[in-house]
Write a structure and sequence with these properties.
Blueprint lengths: L13 H9 L13 H24 L50 E5 L7 E4 L3 E6 L5 E6 L5 E5 L13 E6 L7 E10 L2 E10 L5 E4 L16 E9 L6 H4 L8 E3 L2 E5 L1
Antiparallel strand pairs: 1-12, 2-5, 3-4, 4-11, 5-10, 6-9, 6-12, 7-8, 7-10
């Protein structure tokens, strides 16, 4: 399947930093002796420094109580990290959710079914044979063809009501026994002056009933339709694999089938 459719923060290992500070006291140099008075004064100074520094370090490796953020007075510039030290990343506020205007939620409660047997919204070219096996319950009309130049096209038309034209879904009905070839489904959607084309290659032999295209399509805004959508079916090749001899005994794997298309919006 090919489609053409249409985004750090540095943190400081604060606890590793704490281990470095608390375990990084310099070792005493051997061979140096201190006099009693000098030794006593040095010991007293060490006690004072330890009493001041160690509680701060244990509160937080960077000197602030855990779980708190230093307050900056109103109008004062934010404090800068000391040279050589990585600033601590701050939590960004959660982004505000902006509600979409007018469109409401996606429900896909509105739909339109078009195709063979109707007076609106489908057309064909090339050689086709009429048959049955379409919607509903495999009783609706179907067109089949082995013509490599044949094509079938559905479009949304102009149904009333609904919204969320920014995301619509499309499904195709695949007959139970009338189709088997590989086909290409091309969706052209427009929204205002924008246009988008997406293609999907599907083996009809492997599916039956409603097949939903694995994408959504835009034909307007959440609350206003500004474009439309067209779905075109063309022939790729016969279906061949290990199961083809059993599943295509009637020759259906050489044929493609066009039945009904369904457009869904909210």
């Amino acid at each position: 399947m090919t489609t053409q459719q249409d985004p750090s923060r540095e943190t400081v290992d604060r606890w590793a930093f704490a281990d470095t500070v608390e375990s990084g006291s310099p070792a005493r140099k051997p061979g140096v002796r201190l006099g009693p008075a000098i030794g006593a004064a040095a010991a007293a100074a060490l006690v004072v420094v330890a009493a001041t520094v160690i509680p701060q370090i244990r509160k937080d490796p960077l000197g602030t109580a855990r779980g708190t953020v230093p307050q900056t007075p109103a109008g004062a510039p934010a404090a800068q990290a000391p040279a050589g030290q990585t600033p601590v990343a701050q939590e960004s506020p959660a982004p505000q959710q902006t509600p979409q205007g007018g469109g409401g939620s996606l429900t896909y409660a509105n739909h339109a079914i078009v195709g063979p047997g109707g007076a609106c919204c489908s057309a064909s070219g090339g050689a086709w044979t009429a048959g049955t096996g379409g919607y509903p319950a495999y009783t609706g009309p179907v067109r089949t063809s082995a013509d490599r130049n044949a094509w079938y096209e559905w479009n949304l038309g102009r149904p009333a009501g609904g919204a969320r034209w920014d995301q619509i879904k499309i499904r195709l009905w695949i007959p139970q026994a009338e189709a088997g070839a590989w086909v290409r489904i091309t969706v052209t959607s427009t929204a205002g002056s924008a246009s988008n084309v997406a293609t999907f290659d599907v083996a009809e032999q492997e599916y039956q009933g409603w097949y939903e295209l694995p994408a959504t399509f835009t034909i307007g805004t959440p609350d206003r339709r500004t474009g439309s959508a067209w779905v075109k079916l063309t022939y790729l090749r016969p279906y061949t694999d290990q199961a083809a001899a059993q599943s295509c005994a009637d020759g259906s794997c050489d044929r493609m089938a066009a039945a009904q298309a369904e457009f869904l919006w909210s």
